[in-house]
Each structure stands twice: as C-alpha cells, then as structure tokens.
Design a protein that fits this description.
Two copies of one chain form a homodimer.
Chain A (H helix, E strand, L loop, with lengths): L2 E7 L3 E8 L7 E6 L6 H16 L6 E6 L3 E2 L4 E2 L13 H9 L3 E5 H12 L8 E6 L3 E7 L2 E3 L29 H5 L1 H14 L11 H7 L8 H9 L3 H25 L3 E5 L7 H14 L7 E4 L6 H13 L7
Helix pairs in contact in A: 3-10, 5-7, 5-8, 7-8, 8-9
Chain lengths: ~325, ~325
C-alpha cells in the first residue's frame, strides 16, 4: 500500500485527499472554506490541520499540489494569488518537503486539472489535449506528448484572452472581445445587464428577458452566469442570445486552437459548460466551422468535476517522485 | 567528412544541396524550375538528375527532404501537393531509401523551415519557437522542447486560418477575416482592388492610390503584395492602409498564440515580412497589446531566406540518422 497526498489550494476553498496508488477512490478526504480574511499563512495553517487529520499515522510517498494562481512549476514556488494575500514568492514545494520529508510537486490549477483529466478522466489514453475551464474566468492547460506544456515562462494556456471579436465589449485586460469577456459566468451576467440598459424595451417584453426578470426581480445585480443558463433553458430569448454568444466565442477559440496545435481532444470543465445541450451544440458547430476541414478533433465534457485539481495533484505527485514515473 | 543531402520539393521549384556536417556553407547546390505541366513523376525525375549531378562519387550519410504540401512525417509519405498533380500518397521516404540505401526524413515545408531556423538561423539556442511564413499563403511550424510539434494529425501550425476579424472579408476557406485573408501577398493586392472598386474616388485622389496607379497603370490585375509594400514605402495612403491591416492581423494572431502557447520566439519569414520598418512596428505593437502583460516573447525576422527549407532538410536528415542525434 503506497499512499499519495493530494492538496488543492483554491481561491476560496482548501481540500486535501489521500489515495492508494492505482485506486480511483479517495481513501480519506477533507475540505474547508478559506476564511473571508484569509492570507497565505492562515491558508497554510488550515491546510496543515487538514493534512494531519487525514494522515493520522499514515506515511505518504509523495505530495502533489494544485494552486489557484501562477506557479513556477520548475521550482514549486507560488508567484501570487489573485484571491488571497501574502502568497507572493512562497516556496510551497520547499516548505512541504521540509515538513514532510518526501517529494512534492506544485503547479497551477489549470495545468493540474489538465493532467488530472489526462490521467484519470476524459483525456485518458489521449497524448495531446487542451483542457479549458469556463467558470468565473476562462483558462486552459496543455498536455502534449503526454506531458504538461507550460510555456517558456509558465504562461501557456491563456485561451481566455484570445481575441475573437475585435469589435466586441472591452475586457478587464484592456482588449475587446476576448473569449473570457464573452464566455465567463460573471461576464455573461454583465452582458445581459448591458443589453437591458441599452434596450430597456426588452425588459420583460416579447424579445426576451421576462424569465430573467422573474429570477432576480428588478435587481439585475443578482444575475449570475448560472441564472443566465437557467433562463436560456426556460426559453428566455435574451438569455439565449447571451449564452449562445458565449458558446460562439468558445467555438471560435477552440477552432483557432485546433488549427494552430491540432490536439486530439478538447476537454471542457467549469460551471458554464453545464449550460445544456443547446450551448454544446452551438459550441461544437462553431468550432467545426472555424477549424479547417482536414483538422480532426473532439470536444468532450470534463468528468472529474470539482475533484479535477485533486486528481491532477495525484498525477503531479507521481511525477514528483521518480520511483513512480511509470505508474 | 560526413555528407548530408538536402532536398526541397517546392511548388514551383526543385532544389538540392550537399553539405558537410557542421559546416554552414553548401558544398554543392543545384536548383531547377518545375515545368509548367509538371506532375509527381517529372518532379521526381528532375530531382534525380539534380541529385546525381550533385553527388558525383560522394556518398552522403542521410537525406532530408522538405515538401511543399501535407506530409505524414512519421512514415515520410506525401499526402498531396496543392500545386503539382500525382503526389497523392507517394511514399517519398521509401522511394529515396530504396534508391540510395541511407536513412531519409521527410516533412512539410513549414515544419522543415521552422527546424531550419531553429538549428541554423534566427531560432538557434531557443527551445520553443513558432515560425511563420507570410507569402502567397500564411503558414507556420512549431518547435517545442527543441523538437517539431506537428499535431495529432500533422496539421499543427495553421495560423493562416485563425479568425482575427469575424466581420472581415471572406477567405477561400469560407470563413471571414482569417490572418491569411488579410496578410498574404495576393490577398493584400485583392484588398486594394476591392477598396478602389467600392470607393472609386480614391483612385489617384488625395486619399491614396496614386502611387499604386503609377505602378500598374490602370490594370489593377497586375497588383501584387510586393507592389503594395513598395507603394506604402513611397507614402501611398491606400497601400499603407492595406499593409498595416495585414500587420495588424499578424499582430493579433501572434499575440493570441503567445497567450496560448507562450513560446520564447516568433520567427517571421516570407516576402510580405520584407515590407519595411513601419510594417514591423505595427505588427510588434499589436502583438504586444494582444498578449497579456506577463507573457514575454520576441518577434524576429527569419535569416535563412529561400534556403530555410534546405537547411531544415539538413536538420531532418540529422534526425533521420540515429548516429547524428546529438550533432
């Protein structure tokens, strides 16, 4: 029995799990919300509590870590967190190796989730894939030749800021019509609000919006990407327009990536990708139209859900310990 | 003295060269235009003549081949040529190995040129680069981890059909606003013609076109990408508008690729990239604006020129013969 410890430092939650090598079921699993005023040291303290509670007397052979922010994977140093203060240049791999005396691997959540789906999920048996998460942001992680491709500076995977509509709305990054600007949950909600502000006659009128209005009353600030998806499923024309524009943006992005890199598979996770069959149908059609006819690919939903970072962390741990490279 | 034979089956020309391993100068070099009614067998016959004329009594240790069309590099089989008939499923590697009894490597011209620039040109010492040729078409080739990345089906590198302006003009591929539709030489000439048809008052007027008109008289069919570049350099506003739109399209494409793959370098070759400092300035600025601030990259001109496929073929030959993997 050889144990692997998997850790997930998300933006708002912390999770730890223990698994036997070769098993597809967690032996033990702990999860905790990050407190509102969290910083790096409180997060680390909570994670240590989770770890010691999980381990009891068990001695894992390696630790894999998914971190929700930029990481230098070669040294295992966190660059920063966009959600929690104090993470600037924290040598997370070194800290954990010093404390537990076993090999540790650390990478950012998109790369780790890509590896998780590759080893244990929708990408099993595929040598090249691009994993895309569509949630509060849009990010991605590469597997090429069966291994993570992180880019020269560890920045690869940023499909979220690919420009697909240069005449589109302005993104936080300063450009117009990025994939993320059209397809992330919060931006979908914002797009509904902006259309209603520009065309108030659509509010509750025949051209859509009535279901949305029912969902949030008059308080459009309460709109979320999920409510837009729900309203679209209930037939709201305005919600459908915004949701299909998101699917279009992702489809153009995926088709462009297919032409450029020709991976076997695209694996899509994150809340927005649960928007239903019509969303997927638009996305598949636009991606197929955008890619050249001779470029083959499949687009499939991720299967590991919220556990993708933890399963990816298991894969990172197996890579970190040279004894397990062929596991 | 160990010799390598490099072959270039271009769309309109055939070239062969002989080089000593380690040397940066051709020992011998032959080039012939492909006849107007060429097919695969006449091209092969001409190439055999070139080879035997080059070799005399010399015995090379390996052969590398650049082919101007889709190739299955794993088997060295040509899929087809878009310029010359009869190339469908020709096992070029096998034919040459049978005739010369030495290891042969075959790949398509964009991948080969990328490898040439990587080993002997503007990409020397860089582990990850994207080579882009901007000429009658726009294509690209990847080097990742120091090796070609061809994609699951050998189709990677197609930046030419990345959509950068979904409201732009219709491309031969059926989509609107592809990089190639805005930036290839023939399409730049077409864009000038289309603007003059739509706005005839610009023909020779103050708003540009006068230099272009001088270059081709009234026969706009004579326009080429190179003439557009020359007119832009001479200050023609219409030519500048079309040329800078091409630079913009390339800049958006490169910035998107930088976000997605984070390579160290972009190496740009092909006639259009010789359009001068203003073209490069627009391209560099737009690429920098399109990429995220934390994504670093350089864009540099190719240095091997028309010989890039032949030098790349040398690299392909070195890879094909296992004795030379570390050369």
């Amino acid at each position: 029995m050889t144990l692997i410890l998997a850790l997930d430092f998300g933006g708002t939650k912390l999770a730890a799990a223990l698994v036997n090598i070769g098993s597809r079921k967690w032996l033990r699993y702990e999860r905790r919300l990050s407190p509102a005023n969290a910083d790096a040291s409180t997060d680390l303290e909570i994670m240590r509590t989770l770890i010691y509670s999980l381990l009891e007397d068990a001695k894992p052979a390696a630790i894999g870590v998914s971190f929700g922010g930029p990481v230098d994977a070669s040294t295992g140093t966190v660059r920063l967190s966009h959600h929690v203060g104090g993470w600037e240049n924290i040598p997370l791999k070194g800290l954990l190796e010093d404390e537990f005396g076993i090999p540790v691997g650390v990478d950012n959540d998109a790369n780790v989730a890509a590896l998780g789906e590759h080893r244990f999920g929708a990408g099993e048996g595929y040598d090249s894939l691009f994993y895309i998460t569509v949630s509060t942001g849009v990010g991605g992680g590469w597997i090429l030749n069966g291994k993570p491709w992180r880019g020269a500076g560890g920045m690869a995977g940023e499909i979220g800021h690919m420009v697909v509509d240069p005449a589109g709305p302005v993104c936080l990054c300063g450009k117009r019509g990025c994939v993320e600007r059209l397809a992330s949950g919060p931006y979908m909600a914002q797009n509904v609000r902006e259309i209603l502000e520009k065309e108030p006659q659509r509010r509750g009128g025949l051209r859509g919006g009535e279901v949305l209005k029912g969902l949030v009353g008059d308080n459009l600030e309460l709109l979320t990407g999920q409510l837009v998806s729900e309203a679209a499923a209930a037939g709201d024309d305005l919600a459908k327009e915004v949701l299909y524009k998101a699917a279009w943006a992702l489809g153009v992005g995926i088709g462009n990536v297919a032409n450029l890199m020709n991976p076997q598979r695209f694996v899509l996770g994150g809340g927005v990708t649960k928007a239903g069959a019509d969303f997927w149908q638009v996305l598949q059609r636009v991606a197929r139209e955008t890619a050249l006819p001779e470029v083959d690919f499949e687009i499939v939903p991720a299967v590991l859900g919220d556990d993708a970072p933890l399963w990816g962390a298991v894969a990172i741990a197996l890579i970190a310990n040279p004894k397990f490279v062929n596991e």
